[in-house]
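Render this sequence as a predicted structure.
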Amino acid sequence: MNPVEVILKKRNGQRLSSDELKFFINGYLNEEIPDYQMSAFLMTIFFNGMSDDETVTLTEIMLRSGEILDLSEIKNKKVDKHSTGGVGDKTSLVIAPITAVNDVAVPMISGRGLGHTGGTLDKLESIPGFRTNLSIKEFYKIINKSGVCLIGQTNEIAPADKKIYALRDVTGTVESIPLICASIMSKKLAEGLDGLVLDVKCGNGAFMKKFDDAERLATNLKKISESFGVKTIAYITNMNQPLGNYVGNWLEVVESVKILKNEIHNELTELCNVLAGTMIYLGGKSNSIEEGIKLSRDAIESGKAYDKFLEIVENQNGDISYIENLTKYPNSKHKVSINADRSGFISEIKNFEIGMLGVEIGAGRMKHTDTIDPKAGFIFYKKVGDLVTQGDLIAEMFTDKDELEYFRNKLHSYIIISDKKPDEEKLILKVI
């Protein structure tokens, strides 16, 4: 086959056969097709989409480009969660230990920051010494020992996705439902799961800005997952403002630890309990999601979930002294305060723009070779709907970069204060 002919066929809106998709994906993986042709191919999919059959085929090709884990020796059911990404979304750090404490195995393969969104691996690696690049053998050993392990894609797991994932981030092809589905499911299905919880974000800080698109993505992901025999429940959740109060890799670890220590109770805590409760239910350790949510709350209140998080960090070579003493971590060179310039209600926090500003101040990547500053980020002391008085501290920004006035003006412009209190928005928009 000819790569150009395949690109032209998809550019013209035609369906690709299984053989054509195998030729293109495997050719790229084997370096017979260059980045520039794969970039063109991804753009044709971005604009013209794929049929359900094409998406399932693409998922299977990417899944079978590597190893599918055999975790059959683990007695507990294996359940994972996947979020489509947003600003301040650190739920994996909270729900993995909660779920494992309840005797459900969590073999979690996570990703890095993509576009304006953060990545679980980047957050975990902000903990000094924490290793996410474990071998499959180490992965098995830790899950057998502790029931939970969080790693990145190894060279053995969906290598086609790993290579394409990095290219999508820098070619403007992230927000494509078929590409998102194939990327997510090729990794998750490689884990040998019994159950999967999907958290599909919707709003101005998500890849899916519109509810209809989020619903279509959630439905497609669930359909693909269940076609491979994995019981799946999907949530569509609100991403119109940062999730929780902390944004930035180490800062999100801090907030996660405070939730696990039962010190913070916010909408992030609520969502984590729902997601963990659903994982517990799919893992057969509760008779309903509601009972699972109660078990999740109990795991936090008893201190068992925090202890399990310390165990996760220790198992993966992280220095737990930084978790036990959060103030030990080095500070950013600059701390910039944002104060209310008038009294009123916070009516909007421009979430996508916050995410992109996070990239600028060092918390994310402009290109996949960039180095992240784990200290960089924001703390929001006020959220949408809160009443503020002129002069109140709304947010703080942390960075080692020196363009402080530029950053300050941008962040200030992204937080809108109005006379009228905005309508309260639901956190969970739909369950599928």
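Summary. The chain has a mean pLDDT of 95. The longest helix spans residues 211-227.
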